[in-house]
Amino acid sequence: MGKALLISGHGKNYDGTYDPGAGSIFGQEADYTRELVSMVYQNFGKTANVEVYDQGKNCYSYSKAGQVPDYGAYGVVLEIHFNAKEKKDEAGDGRFTGIGAYVHPDNSGGRAIAEKIVDAVVGLGFGRWQITSSTGLLNLNQAQRAGTKYLLLETAFIDDGDDMQWYKANKAKVAKIIAQVIGKEIGSSVEADTEYLPGIYKIHVKDLNIRSGPDLGSQITGSITDQGTYHITEISGSWGRLKSGAGWINCSTRYCTRITDADGAGTEYDTKAFEVRVEISDLNIRKGPGTSYEKNGICPAGVYQIVETKAAEGYTWGRLKSGAGWIALEYAKRV
Ligand SMILES: [Zn+2]
């Protein structure tokens, strides 16, 4: 039981300079560590005893300057890094270098957690690097002195093309596994998979970043500070595009709650009505504009009035005037 602390390796130093960590054609370590910590964190429910070390800071540099986290307040501390090879293999030679960790030789609790995470990620099909005992890492030693279970995860090799191709395709699963292992350790459950849908979202945090694209690597273009309700018109993973055009927000339940379908808000669609002819006999009616919405019967062949349209999931959806729901207009002809 207890609390867990997640630390993203590298970042902004105490003296204001920036430590990007290792780098390669795939990007900078400090960006990958922040993305993964955020993804791990988002797997936990609202009440989980998990904290994220300030992502605006390089914990190592601040600790060196005397600002050491209160490690004793945590049962588990996980610090995330990405490793670098002596000789880059960015093109990929068909072999993983893999996932590993550093633990203090006397930190059997940290080692046990590292083994669980590494075993589980290797079980997904990734390579195994090694779990190394070390007494030469500042944060590791300070956490050890505080009596906390600590591990420094070397998630993948940032300059190994095989590692990074695999990691990028599987990072959501990696994040989930890490959250599950940490969650078990502190007695906090991991939320079930959430399916995100367009609609109206109520923000419940005081400051939510808006980004130019649907991922943490995209530039921050603003923030939402009014805890208001916002219309999301498109979903990518857990990210939602703001109708205003301001950008994307993370729709995780940690930050906001979906309160209604977009229909509830009224005027967001093209409202020019038109008629279509349905000629096939098995066209599904959906409760909303997308195949992810529940079916609401079959639309028999015939002519129908469409009062709104919306593009989603590869189709253009038309809302039936009857109120029965939405049909994919690719299966109908405009008359
Ligand atoms: Zn590192």
The first-level CATH class name of the largest domain: Alpha Beta
Task: Please indicate the count of domains.
Answer: 3
- Give the CATH topology of the largest domain: Aminopeptidase
Radius of gyration: 24 Å
Q: Which stretches of 5+ consecutive residues score pLDDT under 50?
A: 264-271
Name of the CATH architecture of the largest domain: 3-Layer(aba) Sandwich
Q: What can you see in these coordinates?
A:
With 335 residues, the chain is α+β, with helices and mostly antiparallel strands. The protein has 3 domains: 4-186, Aminopeptidase (3-Layer(aba) Sandwich); 199-265, SH3 type barrels, CATH 2.30.30; 274-334, SH3 type barrels, CATH 2.30.30. It has 5 helices and 24 strands. It has helices at 29-42, 59-64, 108-123, 138-145, 161-186, and strands spanning 4-8, 11-12, 18-19, 23-24, 27-28, 50-52, 76-83, 99-103, 128-133, 149-157, 199-203, 208-211, 220-224, 229-236, 239-242, 248-250, 256-260, 274-278, 283-286, 295-299, 302-312, 315-320, 326-328, 332-334. Strands 6-1-7-10-8-9 form a 6-stranded mixed β-sheet, with helices on both faces. Strands 16-15-14-11-17 form a 5-stranded antiparallel β-sheet, with no helix packed on it. A hairpin with a 5-residue loop joins β2 (11-12) and β3 (18-19). The longest helix has 26 residues, at 161-186. The chain is elongated, with a radius of gyration of 24 Å. The chain binds zinc ion. The site of zinc ion has 5 residues, from loops.
